[in-house]
Specification:
heterotrimer; B: alpha/beta; nine-stranded mixed β-sheet; two-stranded antiparallel ribbon; about 25% strand; C: seven-stranded mixed β-sheet; seven-stranded mixed β-sheet; 25 helices; globular
Chain lengths: ~80, ~230, ~725
């Protein structure tokens, strides 16, 4: 299976990178852009073939290493490899 | 007190730290590799600055998961001394030995410049050789030094008097301009509740020699050597 | 690509001329394979072969008693005492930095670091000489931002302090910025590692990162000018991994404590091809590579791609066979790839096998000996006329002009840039960026220190390349001297336009002539360097920019002086002042003209003044010292005052020189000294046959100039520090 882990700063944690991207977009003339948040996406190729177990493994990885839950939240999507 | 430097791949301020420790302790620190788990008779473990694992994923995240960190945690739980500077501070927060996290600097740029720090308490093994409220200079050199913790944690740190150093002006005032990386409540360094673990972002080890601009950082190491 | 026939048309796309392709065919005596065409095209590119510049480079003096290795090795090596050697070189990464500023600059730093630790030296300092386009040009800001971030991102992570360098802005660099990176390292004199392979049967070992498809044909890209399609060349830019580089430094230096290494070379431009060809060629042996054994990051990489890849952070070594296992353990400890990918042979041939086929089999001697060398036609540059006095009429007060000058891009404070570079790591930086005319870095465990600088004044070189070449060398020598250091040697980075244009080649030849004269007179040999040609965009060349990197030594680091002025000191000017405004910054920025001849350098006077000043610094007389360069005397004094945060009251200059010419002229060979007893220093200088005059005294918080003007140091500093934050928007 393939697991895609999306890691974002939690709401309430200042995201200066997102803010800078928003300002740059405004500078380029893109109007109507509200809040911008920057995060990261981690793609994992897993040997596991069962989607439920693959999700559980990826979530354990995210809690242990991929995200710092003091400041970040994460979301796991599982799809066929 | 016997000091040791814990070395992870990508750490790069270990030489600076070794020089500062040797000046204060009179002997060279032992170097502990990230795969080691037996810390022997060491009393003080120092996690120096650098870019462990390239700062990839998050600063300090991968170093926090190495075998040696289990031993560092056990050492801290036994009441042993631990000092984390810059990346070392980031590793200690990632490992949960100190609360909070270090975010990207508010201005999104690496900052290499001298800053002024105010010593918030002197009844610790790390700060005994300073006067209460003393202001000293230290180089900072980091891209992710913006201290963050939730309000409850910040209130607890302040309530329990666990803030070690704050970014201040040369006159000792807390101002937004003096807090260049945007840290919450101008926090530059914090203690663990038992005052045995200290993490800070700036580099006192790079200012222990008059020839290199001053000896402002020396009291940290002298305090430890005398503890 | 494999669809196309291997013929002269393909060779031309690879950068080989018809004549060069014919020569390659003659050497081979049969049609070339794609991999072989790749090998010929990169080995015979301007970047690797120096085919246009080689005949001129031989004019540069390269010898002195302290020179251990001059040009021809990965970096130059000079003896500095106490059994130690300084290993250093400067190299350009101009073209990649235009295409992708962050990665271009970062990999430039990575590449020059490898040139230095390849020789067994631990890198102790980085510098960089940067030239950007007009700040008002729309792309300049993005390039400055990326280059500065890239230099910092790489240097900070590998843990080598970035301690100095220079930055100029000029519209001639709008489409072709210059990024010249310099690394300085230190090694024991008896532990210098070279690249000549030896020992038939010895294993050829690949270490470092895996090979991908990065930067294929980077070396040929560096040898062609940009057209409008520069954007599309983006995929050839390499990506740097400073974390791996740091591990590679530690692993290589650990291995170098043993006697395992016979020869070692980094894989820089043209990657595996140039490193293996050069190692075997220098050793007069053959080399047999098994490309299947090369660690690979992607699947399906062809032999051609593997030979030409410029993936970063890779090294090639020839090891003693009985030590190979011990070496493997060191690299595995540092989590780096280690693979035996070939053997040294006695065939004198470069052979590369892949998937059971011989993909390349080239005789090494003719590949090197028959490499093209061009005696390009040159057009001797016209000597500019001296600036007529009427063209430099003054309408501005000294303080007003000074305040404006200090805020211009070429003179403004660089603090915004320096503060993104870690300059203190290593715990040995005695003089940080901006604190002295040269950076001063102590050698760990020693009392001695190295003084380091990069210098070039492109506007002088554009007006008169020979005078500009002389001046660049002299200024580097002067900047080292101004700290108290004894100048030792030079690395040069010669950045010019298209060598097929006679006026470009004429400027190149003239600049070399000027540099050679200065190096000769100052006993300041060139020990390493790099040539970067085709720095043009859409037919417009850059200003001729022969950047000089230089190293000096000071036996007691504590004796080094900086520029920061203290209170209650006399300011003494050493050296002759004529009021030379031609090509000065005053003329360009205040009067709005780029005209006239640049200031000449009298090399005998240069040496006499420098030796005198160095003596005074080393005997403790001098509290601060600053050479007089861009912006002239008043700018030099203002820089000292701002650095020390103290005022100065200046006395009037001689009546026969107009005030603005005296205070803003850029006559060469001059220093401002801050000393407790000015008259005594003036007498000593005059006794030594030097022009000397007490020009003022420090104290208070204002700069008072002789035409009646006064300006506070705080106001000067505000003007000085405003440009970069305003330009870069932070």
């Amino acid at each position: 299976m393939k697991a895609v882990v999306t890691v974002m700063l939690k709401d309430g944690v200042l995201d200066p990178q997102g803010k800078a991207i928003g300002q740059a977009l405004a500078g380029l003339g893109f109007a109507g852009v509200g809040e911008v948040r920057a995060g990261k996406v981690i793609e994992l190729e897993l040997a596991e073939t069962d989607p439920t177990r693959a999700r559980a493994t990826a979530e354990a990885m995210a809690r242990r290493l991929l995200a710092n839950t003091v400041i970040e939240s994460f979301r796991v999507q599982v799809e066929p490899a | 007190m016997k000091p040791g430097i814990v070395l992870f791949p990508g750490i790069n301020r270990e030489r600076d730290m070794a020089i500062a420790l040797e000046r204060a302790f009179g002997h060279a620190p032992r170097i502990v590799w990230h795969t080691e788990t037996d810390l022997g008779e060491l009393d003080l473990l120092v996690l120096p600055g650098g870019f462990s694992y390239g700062d990839y994923l998050r600063c300090g995240a991968m170093a926090a998961q190495t075998p040696v960190m289990g031993a560092v945690r056990a050492h801290a739980e036994r009441g042993g001394y631990v000092l984390g500077v810059c990346n070392g501070f980031q590793i200690l927060t990632e490992a949960g030995l100190l609360p909070g996290a270090l975010l990207r600097n508010a201005g999104l740029r690496f900052i290499s410049a001298d800053c002024h720090l105010r010593v918030e308490r002197t009844d610790t093994a790390f700060t005994a050789q300073w006067q209460q409220g003393a202001v000293f200079r230290a180089p900072m050199a980091h891209g992710d030094g913006n201290y963050f913790a939730d309000t409850a944690t910040l209130d607890r740190l302040e309530g329990e008097n666990l803030v070690a150093f704050r970014y201040v002006t040369a006159r000792g005032e807390v101002t937004p301009e003096a807090n260049r990386n945007g840290s919450a409540r101008s926090i530059a360094g914090i203690f663990s509740p038992n005052l045995r673990v200290l993490g800070l972002m700036p580099h006192p080890e790079d200012l222990v020699d008059k020839l290199l601009g001053g000896e402002d950082g020396a009291p940290l190491f002298a305090s430890l050597a005398a503890a | 690509m494999t669809q196309r026939p291997i013929d002269a048309a393909l060779a031309r796309d690879f950068g080989l001329s018809e004549e060069e392709y014919a020569r390659a065919l003659a050497i081979m005596g049969r049609p070339l394979t794609l991999a072989e065409l790749g090998v010929f095209s990169v080995m015979w590119s301007e970047h690797c072969s120096y085919k246009s510049s080689r005949t001129w480079l031989s004019q540069l003096p390269t010898k002195a008693p302290w020179v251990i290795h001059g040009p021809g090795e990965n970096a130059g090596v000079v003896e500095i005492g106490h059994g130690l050697a300084c290993v250093f070189k400067m190299e350009s990464h101009n073209h990649p930095s235009f295409i992708e500023p962050y990665q271009g600059a970062a990999t430039g730093v990575g590449g020059i670091l490898r040139d230095v630790f390849t020789m067994g030296a631990r890198p102790i300092a980085n510098l960089n000489a940067l030239r950007f386009g007009d700040p008002r040009h729309p792309v300049t800001r993005r390039i400055v931002d990326g280059v500065v971030r890239g230099i910092g991102g790489y240097g900070n992570c590998v843990g080598v302090p970035t301690v100095g360098g220079e930055i100029n802005f000029h519209p001639a660099y709008n489409g072709n910025p210059l990024v010249n990176a310099m690394t300085v390292g230190v090694a024991p004199v008896d532990r210098i590692f070279l690249s000549a392979a030896a020992g038939v049967g010895n294993p050829v070992v690949y270490v470092g990162s895996k090979t991908g498809r990065d930067g294929i044909h980077g070396a040929t890209m560096a040898s062609a000018e940009f057209g409008k399609d520069a954007e599309e060349k983006r995929p050839t830019v390499q990506v740097g991994d400073p974390f791996t580089e740091k591990l590679l430094i530690e692993a290589c230096l650990e291995l170098m404590q043993t006697d395992a290494i016979v020869a070692i070379q980094d894989m820089g431009a043209a990657g595996l091809t140039s490193s293996s060809v050069e190692m075997a060629g220098k050793g007069g042996v053959g080399i047999d590579l098994d490309l299947d054994a090369v660690p690979q990051r992607e699947t399906g990489i062809s032999a051609y791609e593997m030979l030409l890849s410029e993936s970063q952070e890779r090294m090639l070594m020839v090891l003693r066979p009985e030590k190979a296992e011990a070496a493997r353990m060191i690299f595995e400890k540092w989590q780096l790839d280690f693979a035996v990918i070939g053997r040294i042979t006695d065939t004198g041939r470069f052979v590369a096998r892949h998937q059971g086929r011989v993909e390349a089999d080239i005789p090494l001697a003719p590949l090197a000996d028959q490499a093209p060398v061009y005696q390009r036609p040159i057009a001797e540059p016209a000597k500019p006329a001296e600036l007529p006095p009427a063209r430099a009429e003054n309408r501005w007060g000294l303080a007003e002009a000074l305040e404006r000058l200090l805020g211009t891009p070429d003179l403004a404070s660089r603090a915004w840039v320096w503060e993104q570079y870690d300059s203190t790591i290593g715990g040995q930086t005695v003089k940080r960026p901006g604190a002295a005319d040269a950076a001063v870095v102590r050698i760990e465990g020693q009392t001695m220190a190295l003084a380091l600088t990069t210098d070039c004044t492109p506007r002088y070189c554009a007006a008169d390349p020979e005078a500009g070449g002389r001046q660049a060398v002299a200024e580097a020598w002067r900047n080292l001297t101004a700290t108290g250091a004894r100048p030792l040697a030079v690395t040069d980075n010669l950045n010019f336009g298209n060598p097929e244009k006679p006026e470009v080649m004429g400027a190149f030849a003239a600049a070399i002539r000027g540099m050679a004269a200065a190096c000769e007179a100052l006993n300041f040999p060139v020990v390493s360097g790099n040539v970067s040609l085709y720095n043009e965009t859409e037919g417009r060349p850059i200003l001729p920019t022969p950047a000089i990197g230089a190293v000096g030594v000071i036996d007691d680091a504590a004796a080094a002086v900086g520029i920061a002025l203290g209170p209650w000191l006399d300011l003494v000017l050493i050296g002759q002042t004529r009021g030379w405004l031609g090509q000065s910054l005053w003329l360009r920025e205040i009067a709005g003209r780029e005209e006239g001849a640049p200031p000449p350098v009298d090399l005998a006077a240069e040496r006499a003044a420098g030796d005198f000043v160095r003596g005074l610094i080393l005997n403790g007389t001098v509290r601060a010292c600053h050479d007089v360069s861009d912006g002239g005397l008043l700018v030099a004094v203002a820089e000292m005052a701002m650095a020390g945060n103290v005022g100065v009251r200046l006395s009037a200059g001689p009546r026969e020189i107009p005030g603005h010419a005296y205070w803003f002229g850029e006559d060469q060979g001059r220093y401002v000294l801050a000393v407790p007893d000015g008259p005594a220093v003036v007498r000593a200088a005059e006794a030594a046959g030097l022009a000397a005059v007490r020009i003022g005294h420090s104290g208070g918080a204002d700069l008072t100039v002789p035409d009646g003007g006064t300006i506070s140091i705080a106001k000067l500093r505000a003007a000085h520090e405003a440009f970069f934050p305003a330009f870069m928007g932070s």
